[in-house]
Amino acid sequence: MRPILPALIVFIAWLAASPSAAQEWGCYDPRPGHPSDQEKADFVAAAGAAAVAAEKKYGVPAPAIAAMAIVESGYGWTRTALEAKNYFGWKYYSDRSAGGRAAYVLSCQPPEDINNKYVVFDSLEESVDFVAMKLSTLDYYHEASRAYRRTVAAGADPTEATRLWLERIANPYNWRPEAYVRSVTRVMNDPVRPSDALSAERNLFRLASLLHRNDPTAARPTVAPAVATVVPAASGAADALLEHALAKVKPWNGSCDAPETDRPGWEGFPVTLCRYSDVGAIVSTHMLNPDKTKLARWIATACRDAGAKKGVACVDYLVKEIQTASSMGVFPVSGYIPEPAGDGNYCFLFRDGVTITTARRPKQLPPASGGCDSDDHSDEAALKARKFARVASTTRYHYRVAGGLEDVGEDGDVRWLDVVRKLYQEAWTSDRNQLISAKAIAAKKAGVIE
Fold it and tell me: So which domain of life are we looking at (predicted)?
């Protein structure tokens, strides 16, 4: 038998001379030797500030966002954090979904973890802003984020609202949702030394408590209200009205690309390029269309805002109007919609949900060769904004009757575009679409509905 002591001595000496051999850097782990307590404290401060800014902008809970960045980036010391400034492990799927950002390849990632590409950011602040926007707008998460904004605005404890939000988004956000909730919660309790016990001095929940104590509107997107609102009906009646709306709404369901969130004037909203066909013409148009639940909520709320005594009849009226006006929810942000009109078929140029004309497109023309002009004229100023606003053919008259105060002029005045865009963007994270409510209120006052 060979003596093992000399070999052992040589091995120990090799380890001492080779730190990387003594401490392997796991693919998803922080760099060996990091973070120190001071590095932790510095990152917690920076992530907390970025998360507060994100909550003010998107209405997602700052304590959870900061803790998620800490957990997923190892206080900024994982490979993706160091090489790509990606502090959430947010994966890259397409140029559009990444907002035109580059992709970083994590070469050490094992093959069983599908997709080793990650979005590249310029800073911690940009990474936090991007992920907060996604958690506020993507279909997987926007219901939880909307509920958080609503409950905090109503005076609920931000700490409990944050915990509930985390539980709701954990699945599908993480493949092990229960373990993920516990890890993030422990960091919210104590971001420097994660614990099941709440640290009175260091907990991240203070971010939300201070934020909402100082600024009660911080968790809501800030778009100026334009149409008077009405206190909702009793919950039982409201639920029944919503159920009826859900049964009646059959939203347009076309082929669309992955959302892009950097469309000028629509930054942060999941605008999609969709294929739309009618009257023998096929077009590709940028849209922001509500899903079934969102549209049903808007309709039910509009009937309550109108004070409709016959709620079911009001829902039926709005469903019919929206179907006729927009094929049940098509909202063109930019591009053409082919439609029949008068004695012919035309390619109507839209911007911000309203038909427009421009210097190069002074009138609406018939389709040609099975389509419309490929130029959406988004680089041109609108010369005229026409009468009707999607998705319910709301007019300036409806807007004024319902209490709208902005000066929108008469047919052709382009100021109508700004108001429609603001109200639709406000509606995107709300149960209330003031454009649809205006339509219902005007119909009630005209005796069209009771």
Answer: Bacteria
Q: Which domains occur in the chain, in start order? A: 37-207 (1.10.530.10), 235-446 (no CATH)
Residue 330 φ then ψ, to 5°: -75, 120
Question: What Å distances lie between residue 305 and 396, 424, 431, 443, CA to CA?
Answer: 18, 17, 11, 12
Q: What is d(CA 17, CA 199) in angstroms, rounded to the nearest whole number?
A: 40
Q: Is the dihedral of CA 383, 385, 391, 393 positive or negative?
A: negative
Residue among 201, 175, 199 at smallest CA distance from 189: 199
Dist. CA 286–CA 268, nearest whole Å: 14
pLDDT at 26 over 60: yes
Look at the block and give the residue holding tokens 């931000």: 158
Chain-centre distance for alpha carbon 387 = 29
Sign of the dihedral defined by the CA atoms of residues 377, 380, 385, 388, in that order: positive
Of 233, 234, 291, 297, nearest to 433 by C-alpha is 297
Give the number of residues written for the chain: 450
- What's this model's pTM, rounded to 2 decimal places? 0.53
Task: Provide the residue type at 316 as one letter.
Answer: D
CA distance linking residue 166 with residue 141, whole number of Å = 10
Task: List Cβ neighbours of 102 (8 Å cut-off, separation of 6 or more).
Answer: 119, 120
Contact of 85 with 127, CB cutoff 8 Å: yes
| The two three-digit tokens of residue 61, written as one number | 């809970």
CA separation for the pair 431, 47 (Å, rounded): 31
**What's the mean pLDDT in 250-255?**
92
> If you compute the radius of gyration of the chain from its CA atoms, what whole number of angstroms results?
26
pLDDT at 6 over 80: no
